[in-house]
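Box 3.1 — From sequence to structure: Cupin domain-containing protein
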Amino acid sequence: MKTFLYGLAFAAVSHATFANAEKLTGYIIENDADIARQQPGPHKGGGETTAFPFFAGASDMELVFRKRILHPGAAIGYHEQHKDEIYYVISGTGELTMNGEKSEVGPGTAILTRPGSSHGLRQVGSEDLVIFIVYGKDRKQ
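Predicted structure (token representation):
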């Protein structure tokens, strides 16, 4: 019980430390295990995914940096792109549909989608598809 309570106290102090780190030191360190969120496939893609919205609470951050795991059968639905967006495949295999054309993507593949293009990505095979996603946030008017 003592170890459990110590762990809770450490977690509370660590969370407060990370929350204030940006103000005090000019940086933030996050661990994916602390921010994991179970979500359906974005853009009506279906299936189960795990999203990791790194630095979502950072003030004045101009980029979105996410890790997403598409579990077997999951997808990012086909949709039109409105700003530059980069996908980078860490592991697994996916089927990318870009402007109606299909291609297989795997580890080490970087994909740049530009405004006006349309794309979707679905996990294929038995292994999770793990990707990083980077794009610019909408600017406040």
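Summary of the box: The first helix runs from residue 2 to 25.
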